[in-house]
Amino acid sequence: MRRRRPLVTNAEVQAPHAGLAHQFQDLEQQQEADALGIWVFLVTEIMFFGGLFAAYAIYRGLYFAAFQGGSHILDIRLGATNTIVLLGSSLTMALSVRSAQTGNRRALVLFLIATMILGGIFLGIKAVEYNQKFVEHIVPGLDWNPQSAVKTELSPGGLLHAELYFVFYFAMTGLHALHMIIGMGLLLWLVFRARKDSFSPHYFAPVEVVGLYWHFVDIVWIFLFPLLYLIGGRY
Amino acid sequence: MSQPIVPQRTYLLVFLSLAGLTILTTGVAFVDLGPFNTVAALAIAFSKMLLVILFFMGVRHSSGMVRIILIAGFFWLALLIAFTTADYRSRSWTAAPDSWSTTAPPTHP
Amino acid sequence: MSTATLEPRVRAPRNYLNADYGWKSWLFTVDHKRIALLYLVSISFFFIIGGSFAVLMRIHLVEPGGALVQPETYNKLFTLHGIVMIFFFLIPSIPAVLGNFLVPLMVGARDLAFPRVNLLSWYIYIVGGTFTLYSAIAGGVDTGWTFYTPYSSTYSNTQVTPVVIGVFITGFSSILTGLNFIVTIHKMRAPGLTWYRMPLFLWAMYATSIIMVLGTPVLAITLFLLGLEHLFHVGIFSPALGGDPLLFQHLFWFYSHPAVYIMILPAMGVVSEIIACFARKRIFGYKIVAFSSVAIAVLGFLVWGHHMFVTGQSVYAGLIFSLLSFLVAIPSAIKVFNWTSTLYKGSISYEAPMLYAMGFIGLFTMGGLTGLFLASLATDVHLNGTYFIVAHFHYIMVGGAVMGYLGGIHFWWPKISGRKYPNGWAALAAAIIFIGFNLTFFPQFILGYLGMPRRYAFYPAEFQVLNVMSSAGATVLGVGYLIPLVYLIWSMRYGPIAEPNPWGATGLEWKTPSPPPTENFAEIPVVTEEAYAYAPQEAAGD
């Protein structure tokens, strides 16, 4: 049986003045400032990850064979699955923003939780992949000692440069995973606020801001997957 | 942020396209296209990114300011990659002086 | 010179300083003006620390064999001097102190767009500074502020990790400040304040913020990779481990060159404000100056390879970077011409801020011109790694940025503190600083040209005279810096009370009381005139 929704949300009772921060003249200025703020922040993230991608691009150009060897060790099925899982979480995130837009509190909470579940699955698969690297002893700096089949696969390009590939594998996916974990925290915070009825069609900026962040993290993975897993083809 | 409400169907279609492109790029990796494997992978990734930006992130309906900011960000990253790559690619255009050693670098102490 | 009398004890009107008392009201404030003062205290502290390292270095260098410390210690001194001065003094200085204080006032808003982010920015700065201080106390770092690999990542056994963490963290302080300014300037300008009516200081802050936002993240990721390499002994930038040291340099200088524009653009903004006020004239070529600020920010990102002419970069890349480095000098030169044209036929008065501004123009020009020697590939081969470089960047950073900062502090001090300082002492300090600065750093041009390398703890005996001259100058310079510390603090208690607009300057910040109330404006102002609407005979309030 559906719970009866209150006629007016918490945010609407307090709005328009309570949602307005003291430095702004009106809600529209605040919303525009919030929007501009998150986009400028995302640009800083583009440059942050971008520096990493630039370094990766240089080394991939220099040591293509070694990078190809490293890439073929990765489990392409787990990578592709994870990509679709994360894309699905972007779908549920977009739907949760839409639910906030339409004032559908129940859907908002459900879609946020769905996003978190999919994000959790992504991190779980990532953990499985990382564990596999430890089993195969191909974790640079901590446990680098490739054996048998793995070693054969990595040797043609040079083990030294294959190790470089895995440094980038861990640095890039690790930084990405860190951003995901932060995103999960932000989603949890949103769930709490949403359940307390803090959002309405007039005020859902935090949902939108977290959504933009989440989509950005998804975009990073959209590039990480082909760049790390699909080097040179597997024919 | 007064944006029009996008139908759920649109989002679902975008997701299905994204999933399809993922399967495509994975499949292409099993075909030998030589250097075009990388080109194809990047092209598909760019398309996926555009779909996410335009539809999921709402840039399709956003102001010009947001687009300028995004383009600026990518442009700056392109500058970093382009100029750095230019250095590496052009190093071989001049011969290294004879005095430079070509022996292997020292090993880690 | 005004006599130092105690003003009668009248209850001061409510302003941001007396609105609330207690340490919590300062450490948990979201008022941009209080945050600016938090930064003022912090960066002054780090200036003294960084300056102390410089003093030790100059004492050491009075003798060719070194007079004070072991070479290993000397390496740590110049490293920490650079790190502290660049990351913890110069980069925050004008943006975090004057920018934080003035940007909301100048746009006619009650605060920045994100006041809590502003406070977070200060705390991040403090945490980063703590890591750096720890690394200094725990043994220091000897890699040079440039952290070149593989020495920093593989071979140095000094406190590289804490200092890299410290600088990494502090970078985010910079990013958040820039983000705040960009959003504030775009979205919170008062009615009537169009882009082309903004004071040039705001244009300078905007351009600086663009650099902060686009460049600093690359430094962050570079330091992150350096930290990984240092901690886990993995090969990212070290040849023995499979990497390329030059890649580190590319990534490092992609930020660190634009960083020098983060340091100089705000000072240029200050100079524009001061020149207009003390020549009683609008800045000549307002739009050109505004566009030049943006041009410097953009072009500044395209020249980083000029730091790598002799480290193994390809000759062709060197050619392109050299050409672009010549180009980036053009907007700076345009600004100098515009300031000079502003002075022409102006009603010039020589209060302390103006002395600093004029000193800036001269010294920045010298520093900038010497940059051209370095931008030229052939001469750079001879001059790179010598004291010529040291002199070049100190002319710009100290002769330029620090003079701009001090000029700004002196110009806006009445607004910030509500008090006036004795102009005689201020002028004397400015003169001492100018003389001390030139005595310190001009000999270094000659030393560099003659071939004395930088970052060396000893030198050939024939260079001693010039080195002693430089150290003597450093003493004078140090005295010069101490004097404002004394009279500015003195003025907070004993200085004459300042009226809202003691200089008769234009700009929204001068329309508020001195000091301003917490909410800045009783009513948000409406702007109807251009930025520097100085009437020729407008009298300075006194």
Summed up:
With 235 residues, chain A is mostly helical. Chain A has helices spanning 10-14, 27-62, 64-73, 76-101, 105-135, 148-154, 159-195, 205-229, and strands spanning 138-139, 143-144. In chain A, strand 1 and strand 2 form a beta hairpin.
Question: What structural keywords apply?
Answer:
heterotrimer, A: 235 residues, Four Helix Bundle (Hemerythrin (Met), subunit A), 8 helices, 2% strand, elongated, disordered N terminus, C: 542 residues, mainly alpha
Task: List the SSEs and their pairings.
The complex is a heterotrimer of chains A (235), B (109) and C (542).
Chain A (H helix, E strand, L loop, with lengths): L9 H5 L12 H36 L1 H10 L2 H26 L3 H31 L2 E2 L3 E2 L3 H7 L4 H37 L9 H25 L6
Helix pairs in contact in A: 2-3, 2-7, 2-8, 3-7, 4-5, 4-8, 5-7, 7-8
Chain B lengths: L7 H21 L7 H21 L7 H27 L19
Helix pairs in contact in B: 1-2
Chain C lengths: L22 H5 L4 H29 L10 H37 L7 H23 L13 H5 L4 H28 L12 H33 L12 H34 L7 H14 L15 H29 L8 H24 L1 H7 L3 H31 L5 H28 L13 H31 L48
Report on the architecture of this protein.
- The complex is a heterotrimer of chains A (235), B (109) and C (542).
- Chain A has one domain: Four Helix Bundle (Hemerythrin (Met), subunit A) (Up-down Bundle), CATH 1.20.120.
- In chain A, 75% of the residues lie in helices and 2% in strands.
- Chain A has 8 helices and 2 strands, in the order αααααββααα.
- In chain A, strands 1-2 form a two-stranded antiparallel sheet.
- With 109 residues, chain B is mainly α.
- In chain B, helix 1 (8-28) packs antiparallel against helix 2 (36-56).
- Chain C is mainly α.
- In chain C, 66% of the residues lie in helices and 0% in strands.
- Chain C has helices spanning 23-27, 32-60, 71-107, 115-137, 151-155, 160-187, 200-232, 245-278, 286-299, 315-343, 352-375, 377-383, 387-417, 423-450, 464-494.
- Chains in contact: A-B, A-C, B-C.
- Chains A and B meet through helix 2, helix 4 and helix 8 of A and helix 1, helix 2 and helix 3 of B.
